[in-house]
Amino acid sequence: MIPIFNSTRQYEQIGKEVEKEVIDVLRSGQYILGKHNKALEEELAQFIGVKHAVCLNSGTDALHLALRALDIGAGDEVISTAFTFVATTETIEMVGAKPVFVDINPDTFNIDAAKIENAITPKTKAIIPVHLYGQPAEMDKILDIAKRHNLFVIEDACQAIGALYNGKMVGSFGDIGCFSFYPTKNLGAMGDGGLLTTNSENIKNRVLALRNHGGAVRYHHDEVGVNSRLDEVQAAILRIKYKHINEWNKLRRQHAYKYNELFAKCSDIITPQEIDNSYCVYHQYTVKIPNRDEIFEKMHEAGIGTMLYYPIPLHLQKVNEYLGQGKGSLPETERCTEVVMSLPMFPELTDEEIKTVAETLIECVENSKALA
Ligand SMILES: *Cc1c(COP(=O)(O)O)cnc(C)c1O
């Protein structure tokens, strides 16, 4: 059995240090917004290359409070993709704005920058590119469009901490960057967590207030906020794990290239393509294959954990029926949801396992073709 993700192997590596730090926090009595929160914010701001980072409860909250901090709400439109996790556009709807879906580039799975301008209307306020699977979106083109149309850019970097585009970290390009520390993410907590990055002092101050019930001063509330603080225990754990992020991302890349090599002999398996001048961090290693549903089942029968990210595009989800955007409106997105399959990917994966996964997939694809 080879799982798509495994967290216990990593725990073997860092568990002792984590247990010591967690006990220290427990004994300190400082459980909310303590020294680890502050230190983590400083460390990650420096790592990502921004002036400010604010720890939050989740990546979803980072997106939500990003929109709130930019005063995006009812009557506004926000451009993003339908080939992403639901939180990307759910948060647009949470603030009362309307998501406008632009099709993806099927080679990169990210928003097709060439199609953004067609979707801009007088109501458009922002673009949310997603760095899906750890691959940067085409930020130069997106920033250029945003500048010409006076739009905000919020990067959904939840799957891409440590990824680079033109030598700069994702999450440092837009007005705001949003990160998730969900346990399976490249930098995962042992519970929920998130981070918002920005170079703007105003945005930082607004988010600091919003995460704590809309007031910078205790018991003085200027607007409706939320409770979205990061637990001090999680901040302490994340500081330990953060020291390994570059090494872990490097291992993910090595695994991806090993997969690529093994799949080179099977032209029916389309391996992920990287865009120029990027450093992809392979949150997922996602291939495109024919007869995907049948092969997905066969892989599970063979004891290999694979997943479909994502099986239904967001414009065709029940929650978005009200938008009235039917099937056929985003052809590349829709086609990708039918052919993608993500394979086991985590830093502690062994060469032996990668080989087994690749050989099994090749066999499944060839068998399915022979039967066709
Ligand atoms: C994980 C994820 C989120 C949400 O993050 P949570 O911490 O789970 O709330 C948002 N967008 C994308 C692309 C994600 O992968």
CATH topology of the largest domain: Aspartate Aminotransferase, domain 2
Work out the helix count. Answer: 11
Number of strands: 12
Q: CATH superfamily of the largest domain, called what?
A: Type I PLP-dependent aspartate aminotransferase-like (Major domain)
| Residue runs with pLDDT of under 50 for 5 or more positions | none
**Strand line-up across the major sheet:** 1-9-8-5-4-2-3
Label the overall shape: globular
The whole-angstrom Rg is 21 Å
Strand content is 5-15%
Query: What percent of the residues sit in helical stretches (DSSP H or I)?
Result: 25-40%
End-to-end C-alpha gap: 28 Å
Q: Structural class given helices, strands, pairing?
A: alpha/beta
Task: Provide the succession of SSEs.
Answer: HHEHEHEEHEEEEEHHHEEHHEH
CATH class of the largest domain: Alpha Beta
Ligand species: pyridoxal-5'-phosphate
CATH architecture of the largest domain: 3-Layer(aba) Sandwich
Report mean pLDDT, rounded to a whole number.
Answer: 97
The total domain count is 2
